[in-house]
UniProtKB/TrEMBL annotation:
<feature type="region of interest" description="Disordered">
    <location>
        <begin position="164"/>
        <end position="193"/>
    </location>
</feature>
<feature type="compositionally biased region" description="Low complexity">
    <location>
        <begin position="173"/>
        <end position="188"/>
    </location>
</feature>
<protein>
    <recommendedName>
        <fullName>Integral membrane protein</fullName>
    </recommendedName>
</protein>
Length: 280
């Protein structure tokens, strides 16, 4: 999280007290905004530029929420990396890097700038457009499903240790439907589950016919493995290339369905990793 650095906000004629920043690129974007990079950009009415954007979230002197979109992706990446390491970093992009200033925040921010009024949307006459607001995650749906997948990717070890490999049915000829699990808890599953079969089929389709940019992303994992994230209409999948996968479905609120490696998953994950976008 940032401090309260100040940058100019062209649309607000005021300084911006920076609270945080995020990347909006094909390989790294707030997945709560969409299943892929173009969809996430559309949520902010931005064209899906190949190099992406940096989003700087803050408040003006009146406390109003603003999201400043800049095209200096490297600057924002360095700032985020510094903050993650507990280091101070003054995020002050050149005015020429500012693409636009949008009222509101597309993501929930839990902190506020000191010494200014509480966060609020700027007046419509000042903003010139409807203010951005975070997607509704109060009930199960696409946004909540994607956030769940984010959490599994971030806390892979904690989720993985809940799975006993012996609980997976035999991979061939004896695959059974997954048993119902308590909300938020993974239950044993293989491709025998109808929803999982659909997800695996659609993921295989991505290999043959590339989906919109960002539907399949690959990121660092311990050892020589990669963490894979794939999303599609109504589903999200998180996997390690050397391990199992987890599937979340819009149709099954709170359920986390593990998919054993079996004979087919390793090859699918390898193929997805080869066509996935990766952080620079």
């Amino acid at each position: 999280m940032a401090g309260t650095d100040e940058i100019a906000v062209a649309a607000a004629d005021d300084a911006l007290y920076v609270l945080t920043a995020v990347l909006l690129t094909p390989a790294q974007f707030p997945s709560v905004l969409g299943d892929d990079y173009p969809e996430a950009c559309a949520a902010l009415d931005l064209p899906p530029l190949a190099d992406g954007y940096g989003l700087v979230l803050g408040q003006d002197g009146d406390g109003a929420r603003w999201t400043v979109v800049i095209d200096d992706v490297s600057l924002v990446a360095v700032a985020i990396a510094s903050w993650d390491c507990g280091m101070e970093y003054e995020l002050s992009p050149d005015e020429r890097a500012v693409v636009t200033a949008l009222p509101g925040w597309p993501l929930a921010v839990a902190v506020a700038a000191p010494g200014v009024p509480a966060p609020h949307d700027p007046p419509a006459e000042t903003a010139g457009r409807a203010a951005l607001c975070p997607p509704d995650t109060g009930s199960w749906g696409p946004a909540q499903r994607r956030l769940g997948a984010d959490e599994i990717a971030l806390q892979w070890a904690a989720w993985r240790e809940q799975i006993d490999d012996d609980s997976f049915p035999p991979p061939r000829g004896q695959a059974a439907a997954a048993e119902s699990a308590p909300p938020g808890a993974p239950g044993a599953s293989t491709g025998g589950h109808a929803g999982v079969r659909r997800v695996l089929a659609e993921a295989r389709g991505y290999v043959e016919s590339p989906p919109p940019l960002g539907r399949v992303r690959s990121s660092f994992a311990p050892g020589e493995a990669r963490t894979l994230r794939a999303d599609g209409p109504g589903w999200s999948m998180v996997a390690r290339t050397d391990d199992i996968a987890f599937v979340l479905l819009d149709d099954e609120p709170g359920e986390i369905l593990p998919v054993g490696r079996g004979p087919e998953l390793p090859g699918l994950l390898e193929a997805l990793d080869k066509m996935a976008v990766r952080p620079l």
